[in-house]
């Protein structure tokens, strides 16, 4: 019986599963947002939170009252960097600090300030979250709370 | 006497002197969104809904599952046109259709497709809503439902 | 036995298949390109051919010898319009011709010249092809040959 | 007599009048790509490879499956830097590391990350290759394999 199921599975994996990739739905994005926003509110931090799909296109964005307007584009840029390069913006931040320079800043869409995190599912990138409004370390804490809520 | 004047001044500074403008809070934007999204869901229309502040900066954006990615920038552009020009994008659409030309298309940030509406409070512009994803007439119906929910 | 398989399938569809979407691989894009290029060569038409993924990011681009350099960005723009709006650029061309105006030109990323086609799989958008270099009608013929080769 | 003059003119047009520059054809670019891609596949490295003409315009671009989407623009930027400045991006990388600063980053189109190489023929620049997707040193190895295949 077990081998029968395996055979069925094998057939499915070719004929039904086909060539597909997981994706982030609006419901997923809302769950990520709620988790991030809950952390932000608990700490009393007002921020912009942006959640992008795997192509770098916005699925959800909210700007809390009183946050600097510049944070809208910063949150989007951090999220874009995270999904474009499949890594936290903190990785670029650390590399740029270590070098003491701006070599990485010459790469299109790379952001070297903490607060952007990629979102993976089954090892495949499906989107990202970007946060801006408080210190970059605090932005990073909120972004992490978002990913953990996924 | 001096203290009496101070008290009078204090009252004025809040009620009369107070030079303020009304603004759209995130809570307001969420109410506008919920009202617009309720109409969209009731009709079975999947769309992107964007809500901007009085400076044209996004407060809230959500993209429902399956909507064409082009609608993200279109919803933002419609909303931007509405708040930048304090009028519905339908006004530009009608004018462009009447002229049969592209004169208005040369105005920076003007969009000539229905689906963007300004949001006023006490006669003052405080933001806008932009919708994209179905026909422009349907986008307009959703946008109107949003403004009515405010 | 049939019902057992159906149950197995149902379980798979929730637990294994999960929330996924089809995508365009480089091998797919090469097949689309070869089919389009074969048509172009048979007609003696030199063009740029661009193939994008579902997020509008290039997977494959080739510029044949002697084609005007402007066609590189035009092919990319046509393909971007097709995948961003899930429709051929010919649809915008026809609408703009019918109106005799440029209302649609105010929509970000919309291109109103034939030669861009979306690519669907199982009803889901997975990418697009854009062609530029000869007349827009000829560009469209090449693009169609590409999609048919998929 | 007239035919004699024509012959003389014909000779001039090739030997004396002929003011030409060598250029990179699509067939050349495909050879460069194949050589670079063969090295990448041999190492198991998935990358984006972009090949530009002497004006910095793309002739060929391919993105292998699963490569971060940010690598599309990075590969193009590296190749652009290489052809715009007639030198490997590694030269800027070394200079920026040596200075520990961002002076060179203020030069338009300069990229300070290895992986972009100019392509010369008879001492004349005819194009470039840019690679992105693995480490910058590995990107450089692939780019070199491409140039060597020319």
Automatic annotation (TrEMBL), chains A, B, C, D:
It comes from the Bacteria. InterPro entries: GlcG_carb_metab_protein, PduO/GlcC-like, PduO/GlcC-like_sf. It holds the Pfam family HbpS-like. This is Heme-binding protein. The lineage of its organism: Bacteria, Pseudomonadati, Bacteroidota, Cytophagia, Cytophagales.
